[in-house]
Design brief:
Blueprint (H helix, E strand, L loop, with lengths): L12 E4 L2 E4 L7 E6 L6 H12 L1 H6 L2 E7 L3 H15 L7 E3 L4 H5 L14 E6 L5 E7 L7 H17 L13 E2 L6 H9 L7 E4 L2 E4 L3
Length: about 210
């Protein structure tokens, strides 16, 4: 099964480094569910350290990090403990043990044309209503940019809160945009009187707004 943006996130129960976990238990907060190819691998180790160092930023955005690979729970525990011993960084989020690839297959985390056994680097943004809002997929060979994951999460939350959209290269604190008008009269209002809606319009369909 493959999931897509806008669908209900498939629920599951799994064993993790923090004990049993059920996805639906996190309803009411954002979930960043991410997979990695395997424990004791160099790129994954740097990613886990980076996620751990950003964990407080995710929590400030009401978001829970959950990792996953098809390694066993003892392997996960040994790996995160080795990271702690080598770097002093503790992994503050659960890591799902998915030896039978049940969750991986449920979410389409395995790319069979690349590798039939390891999960590629998927990131699923799941909102408080358990709807999948965004999906990022990275190859086995290249690590993720954690700042981009935080940026996209903030953009999604800004869209939800204010009913706006975000332009290319948007960063928190910069100008947002408004969706295109839905009627002819709205297009005329934006073109002729943009100041009434506190807009900076280049054309009727292309309007910026200071972030609230």
């Amino acid at each position: 099964m493959n999931v897509s943006i806008g669908m209900k996130a498939p629920d599951f129960t799994a064993m993790t480094t923090f004990g049993p976990l059920k996805l639906s238990d996190f309803k009411g907060q954002w979930v960043i569910l991410f997979s990695h190819p395997g424990d004791f691998t160099p790129v994954c180790t740097t990613e886990f350290i980076a996620f751990a160092q950003a964990n407080d930023q995710f929590e400030a955005l009401n978001a829970k990090l959950i990792g996953l690979s098809i390694d066993s729970n003892p392997s996960h525990l040994a790996w995160v403990n080795q990271i702690r011993l080598l770097t002093g960084v503790q992994i503050p989020f659960p890591v799902i043990a998915d030896r039978m690839a049940e969750v991986a297959n449920l979410y389409g985390m395995i790319a069979p044309d690349v590798n039939k056994q390891e999960t590629v680097r998927n990131v699923f943004f799941i909102d408080p209503n358990q709807i999948i809002r965004a999906i990022l997929v990275y190859p086995l060979t290249n690590g993720r940019n954690i700042s981009e994951i935080l940026r996209l999460l903030t953009a999604l939350q800004t869209t939800d809160k204010y009913g706006v959209v975000t332009p290319a290269n948007w960063m928190p604190g910069s100008s947002v945009m408004v969706p295109p008008p839905g009627t002819y009269n709205q297009s005329l209002e934006r073109l002729n009187e943009p100041e009434t809606a506190d807009l900076n319009c280049i054309d009727w369909f292309w309007c910026y707004k200071n972030e609230p």
